[in-house]
Amino acid sequence: MNNIIIALSYSFCWGVGVTLTKIALSEISATTLLIIQLLSSVLFLFTVCYLTEHQVPLSWQQLKQGVAGIFEPALAYMVGIFGVKMTTASNATLIGSTEVILTILLAAVFLGEKLTLGKILLASISFGGVSLLILKDVQSIDHASLRGDLLVLLGTLFAVFYALLSKRQIQTANPLQLTTSQQTIGLMTTVLCFGALSLLNPSYGISAANISPQFWLLAIGSGIMQYALAFLLYLTALRHVPASHAAFYLALIPVFGVASAIVMIGEQPSLAQGIGGLLVVASSYWANKLQVT
């Protein structure tokens, strides 16, 4: 039961986090928002580490353990946050759910986890659902939205690489310390990348001027929810189950994400998008049933 609660919790944090990020992007630039979110996450995790373990994992050896943070949150969210800005929160959340299928397939290749015919069939159904999801953007030749969809998908691939690397580490690592190290490396990588980009294009610069107090709170709160809490809960679950099994619960992310987008933003997915989303969620749900039977 504890594992199920943990899985539901990280799915909730990531699903609602996408919608909160979409709202925050209405006032805060993508680069500035990501830095605020990551910095909030790292400071929160440092505080928790100090209060619970009386130390902060900043030694060279501990930081080296956080190398997976280069893939996620750094690369995954640097790419993904621009995708979210160009597409809808519903699309971003539902496309992100392909992480379930991609993790199943790549975990079989790189981690030797069992891949059955049933999982392959469900993977095909899920990809069919994603095709329906972005069909509207392709038909309307909405290049901005289509680019956004593709950027979110690329960010999802980086997230899968993160899961594979973390699975190898978590068996012998403390989840809180590993999360803190990864988030610290992710923040450092993001600052360096955005700094280099700002030299080429000033629009990538970081500026916290003119951000209203409520959006400061939104950025900080979403950073703690989407980065610190979600990643800590995910690594805790990953310690006890295979990567492909932990990924099954990610199918619930679009449920929380789309529901929160409807409530908070008033977005209304099209019929095709709804069907595509249902296919993705249904395939992941039955994959979860396969692994527990």
How many β-strands, per DSSP? 0
Instruction: Report the average pLDDT across residues.
Output: 84
* Biggest sheet overview: none
Given helix and strand content, the structural type is mainly alpha
Global Rg: 18 Å
Topology order in helix (H) and strand (E) letters: HHHHHHHHHHHHH
Number of domains: 1
Low-pLDDT segments: none
Tell me the β content: under 5%
Helix content: over 70%
Can you characterise this structure?
The model has no long low-confidence stretch (mean pLDDT about 85). By secondary structure, this protein is mainly alpha-helical. Helix 4 runs antiparallel to helix 8, helix 4 (about 70-85) packs across helix 9 and helix 5 (about 90-95) runs antiparallel to helix 12. The protein starts with a helix and ends with a helix. The protein has 13 helices and no strands. It has one domain. The chain has helices at about 1-25, 30-55, 60-65, 70-85, 90-95, 100-110, 115-140, 145-170, 175-200, 215-240, 245-250, 255-265, 270-290.
